[in-house]
Amino acid sequence: MTEALRLHKKLKGKIEIKVKMKASQKNLHLIYTPGVAEVAKIISEDPEQSFFYTSKGNNVAIITDGSRTIGVGNTIAEASLPVMEGKAVLFKTLAGIDAYPLCLKTKSSKEIVKTIEFLSPSFGAFNIEDIESPKCFQIMEELEKKDILAFHDDRQGAAIVVLSGLLNALKVMKKDLKKVKICLAGAGAAGYGTFKILEESGVKNLIVVERKGIIHRNSKDKNKYFEEIAQATNSQNIKGGLREAIKGADVFIGLTGKGRLLKNQDVSLMAKSPIIFALSNPIPEIFPQEIEKATKDYLYATGRSDFPNQINNAMVFPGVFKGMLVKRKRTSLKLEAKIARAVAGLVSKPTRKKILPQVFDKRLNRSIIRQF
Questions:
Q1: Is 32 a catalytic residue?
Q2: Which of 6, 182, 200, 292 has a CA 20 to 30 Å removed from the CA of 159?
Q3: Is 225 labeled as catalytic in the residue annotation?
């Protein structure tokens, strides 16, 4: 990690603004006064023209309050800036989108929504990122009411990639999506999003477990999102913790943020030929060495790029935002599941070591945009 520190200190950040044309005395009257007044007049008469006469149609604001920052959790907004800059690099590199990290010095959902509303004249869409749940869900609901284009990458982006990977993993291990038992660990942003897309895709046997145990219909301290999970999953109303949830499961999906949560004893409770998605970063819920103490017949994926089968939202968010900006259309669960199937389809012959395309696969954006 020392190398990462050296790189960031040397560059003093990873992004900068570049102009599309060289300014000179000869063109000053076109790019600034008086010519720019003509453009302002057209937009004042029809705000939609801002998408054609300015950069708005290619501008995305990455919004965070630092409350769910990778590696440190709930922290100050400044600490989340290098993460948001990294997202901006991927936006530009993978989709040509100009993304601006906006790390807000507030933890109030109302203030975050109001800030986005104030900023909406300058941005075509907003990426909600690294904001704790359930606050992030509330923010998205309010933005939808205000008809502001937004996408919650931690929730929706993660869910799309999980479903993509799962479709191909099931194909490799010869299992049926509608018949498998799935243990989903984590009910935060990514966990809730994954629950929603799995439900949309027809999963019948799903148990969700969070830090207090399995979510069931008699769970205490439920918010409305937990209540939704409780009503739609765990049909037998099983109670207990991780070991009770994972017993007999064909699939484990870890979205807990807690490294090394899973032990080989837990894997031994799973069904034969288990699929294990240990997706927490930077340390996954379990490593292959631990799994192999219980079984050699398994399929493994993480959120990391140094293992086969990386399941990371970076695979889809650039293409999703490109589609949103081009079509000026928000996503839906149905569309997100459709995108997941399209991404999975890019790997024609999945194997245990390759269930998804790589993040830099140039086919991804084209395939995703076609689904809008």
A1: yes
A2: 292
A3: no
